[in-house]
Amino acid sequence: MSLHPVVARVTDRIREKSAPSRARYLQLVERMAGRDRGSDRLGCANVAHAFASMPQDARFKVITERAPNLGIVTAYNDMLSAHAPYAGFPDVLKDEARRHGATAQVAGGVPAMCDGVTQGTPAMDLSLFSRDVIAMATAVALSHDVFDGALLLGICDKIVPGLLIGALQFGHLPMVFVPGGPMPSGLSNTEKAKVRELAAQGQVGRAELMEAEQKAYHTVGTCTFYGTANSNQMLMEAMGLHVPGAAFIQPQDGLREALTREAVRTLLGNVKTRRFTPIGRQVDERCIVNAMAALLATGGSTNHLIHWVAVARAAGIAIDWDDFAELSSVVPLVARVYPNGQADVNAFQAAGGPGYVIRELLGAGLMHDDVLTVREGGLREYTRVPVNDNGLQWRDTGASRDESVLRPAAQPFSVTGGLKLLTGQLGRSVIKISAVPQDRHLVEAPARIFDTQDALLRAFQAGELEEACRSNGSNGLVCVVRFQGPQANGMPELHKLTPSLSVLQNKGYRVALVTDGRMSGASGKVPAAIHVSPEAAAGGPLGLLRDGDVVRLDAEAGRLEVLVPHEDWIRREHARLPASQAEDNGMGLGRELFAAFRRNAAEAEQGACTWL
C-alpha cells in the first residue's frame, strides 16, 4: 500500500522545518558513535572505578575480551504498581547478558511518581516537570559513558517520555525499552467511574468509594484504562523501540520473562553485528509520525500532544499541533478502549492489541514501513503477537477477536482520529472528541471563571454550577479554569474535575471545560478545550475572560471563541495570578525546588520543555 498523501505531506513538512536542527543532532550522533569504546578510551583509573563492583570474571570480559557492556536505567519503585515488577528485572537482564558473553550494569535509577496518588493534590504540580527530571536523571546515568547499548525500564505517564528524551541525548547508542505489563482486570473502569460520580454527589461515602477504588487498583501492573501510561506502551510499539508485542503482556504471565530476556538478545544482536541502529537514527521524522498515527488511531492520551513534541525536539525534530490535527483528519479511530469505550487494555490485547492496530495502519498507508526498529525485520515484525509455544515465537495477529474493541481501518469507529485543534480569540488548544457524545461537540454558554480547580469543586458542591446551568437561559455552562499552565504552577492534570462535570452532563446540562491546564489521559466524555496557549500566566487571553462572557466551543469547526464585542475585548485589563496563589504554587511538597522550571517552561505546544 502506498503512503497516504496526507501522511506523506505532514512528514515532508516536518522534515523540511526540522532540517537544520536535525542535521546538527545527527552530526553529534555520528561524532559520538565514531569514538573508541569506553573501556578503551577512558583512563585506567576511570575504567577501574566503572567496573570495580563487577565480579572478576565479568571485569575480565569487558576490559580484556572487550565484551559488550549494557547499561540498565530503571524507574523501579514499589510505590507504583506498574513499576513494582521491575524489582527483579536487572538480575534477569544481567543473567541473559552473561549467557551471551556480555555484561550489564544498572547505570542508574530515575524517579517515578504516580499521578493516581498525587491527583488533585499540590504534589501534582511536580508531575509534568518530573518528565524533565527523569530525562536529566537518564542522562546522568548514561554519562559514565562506558556502555555499548542501554535497556530502559519504565512505563507510566512522564517516565517513558522522560527516559526517551534522556536517551536521545545519547543518540549514538542502540537502546531497547523494556515494559512490565498491565495488571489483571479488576472492577471495570466504567463501574469505577459510576461510583466516583455517586461520591461526587454525596450518594455514597468514603468507605464505598474506597472499596471500589481498591477493587480497580488491586495488584502489580499498569492501571488497566487507556490513559497516558498505556498510550506510552502503544507508541513504543509503533516506534519499534520494544521487542514486538511486549507492551500488554501481564507481569504474572510466563511470557513476560521471555520477552524481557529477548530484549537483551535484541540489543546484543545490534551491538555485536554492528548493525548501526542507534536510537538517535531510529527516532526520525517517520518514526515520530508513526507514533502520532498510532496515538490517534487508538484514541490515546492528550498528554502526548505535549510529551511527543518534547520527544521530537530532543531528536532535533519540530512538530506542532497542526501536524497532529492534519493527521487526525485521515487517521481513523480503530480502537475503543476506556475512556473511549468500555473495554480495558487487557481486552484490547485479547482482541489483537498493538499488532492489529499497526497492521491496519500500515495496510491503509497511514504509517511508514521503511523505518529502522530495534529488530532487523522492521515495523512489519510489530504486526505479530508473541506466544510461548516451546519457546518464544510470534504469530500473525489475524482478524479482530472483538469488533466492539478493534475494527479494521476500512470499517472504523470513526473516520478521523478524534483530535481537533481549536483556534480563535481564546488562543490555541486541543480537544479529544473520540469519547465525547456527538451532540456535545458544540457548546455555547456563559462562562464561570475559576483560578483553581478546588474553587470549581467548591462551587459544584454548593450547587452553584447546577443553578447557573438552570438559570442562564442556555441550559449550560463553560467552566474556565485558568492559571494552570506550566509557568503558573507546573500544569497539573485536572482529572479531579471529571466526576463533577460528568454529573452535570448526565443531568442533561450542556457543560464544557476550558483550561490552560491538562486533563488526565483517562478523561474524555465531557468536552474540554485543554492546553490553551498562551497560558494565562504568560499573558494569554484566558486572563481577559469575565464571568458571564459567552464562550463558544465548536469542535466540528475547530473554533474556541468568546462572543464579546471586539471594542470591549481589546479594552479589558488582563487578570493576574493572585499573589497569594502564586506564593502557594511555589511552596510545600518540594515545589520550592522547581521555581526555575516554572520560570523557564515553554508553552504547552512547545512541549512545556524546561531545557531549551
UniProtKB/TrEMBL annotation:
Its cofactor is [4Fe-4S] cluster. It catalyses: 6-phospho-D-gluconate = 2-dehydro-3-deoxy-6-phospho-D-gluconate + H2O. One of its GO terms (molecular function) is metal ion binding. One of its GO terms (biological process) is Entner-Doudoroff pathway through 6-phosphogluconate. Residues 68-381 form the Dihydroxy-acid/6-phosphogluconate dehydratase N-terminal domain. The keyword Iron-sulfur applies. Gene3D superfamilies: IlvD/EDD C-terminal domain-like (3.50.30.80). GO terms for cellular component: cytosol. InterPro entries: 6-phosphgluc_deHydtase, Dihydro-acid_dehy_C, DiOHA_6PGluconate_deHydtase_CS, ILV_EDD_C, ILV_EDD_N, IlvD/EDD_N. SUPFAM superfamilies: IlvD/EDD N-terminal domain-like, LeuD/IlvD-like. Residues 405-608 form the Dihydroxy-acid/6-phosphogluconate dehydratase C-terminal domain. Belongs to the IlvD/Edd family. This is Phosphogluconate dehydratase. The lineage of its organism: Bacteria, Pseudomonadati, Pseudomonadota, Betaproteobacteria, Burkholderiales.
